[in-house]
């Protein structure tokens, strides 16, 4: 099974998304949204090249968009 490692900043962002979502939308909707983000991470781990390349000020990444969030990542080969 493929795997991924979140950076410390990405892990913190994920936690903040969880807290914000639960406060503003309730636990049920927050859980559903976070499950969707988890599925994105699984898709990235299983087939990262299915996503488009994105050039940013910080460099070239691969980008996965889920609703109102974008996940930028690099592949370690």
Model description:
This protein is an alpha+beta fold and 77 residues long. It has one domain (8-73). The chain contains two helices and three strands; from the N terminus they run ααβββ. It has helices at residues 8-25, 27-46; strands spanning 53-56, 59-66, 69-73. A three-stranded antiparallel β-sheet has the order 1-2-3, with helices on one face. Strand 1 and strand 2 (59-66) form a beta hairpin. The chain is globular, with a radius of gyration of 13 Å. It starts with 7 loop residues before the first helix and ends with a strand. The model has no long low-confidence stretch (mean pLDDT 93).
Features:
alpha+beta; 49% helix; 3-stranded antiparallel beta sheet; 77 residues; 22% strand
Compact overview of the structure:
By secondary structure, this protein is an alpha+beta fold. It is built from two helices and three strands.
Low-confidence stretches: none
As a percent range, the share of helical residues equals 40-55%
Query: Strands across the major sheet, in which order?
Result: 1-2-3
Question: What profile does the largest beta sheet have?
Answer: 3 strands, antiparallel
Structural class determined from secondary elements: alpha+beta
Overall shape: globular
Number of domains: 1
Strand content: 15-25%
Rounded to an integer in angstroms, the radius of gyration calculated over CA atoms is 13 Å
**CA-CA gap between termini:** 15 Å
């Amino acid at each position: 099974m493929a795997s991924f490692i979140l950076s410390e900043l990405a892990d913190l962002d994920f936690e903040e998304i969880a807290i914000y979502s639960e406060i503003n939308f309730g636990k049920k909707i927050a859980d559903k949204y976070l499950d969707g983000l988890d599925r994105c991470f699984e898709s990235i781990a299983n087939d990262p090249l299915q996503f488009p390349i994105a050039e940013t000020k910080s460099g070239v990444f691969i980008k996965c968009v889920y609703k109102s969030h974008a996940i930028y990542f690099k592949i370690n080969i």
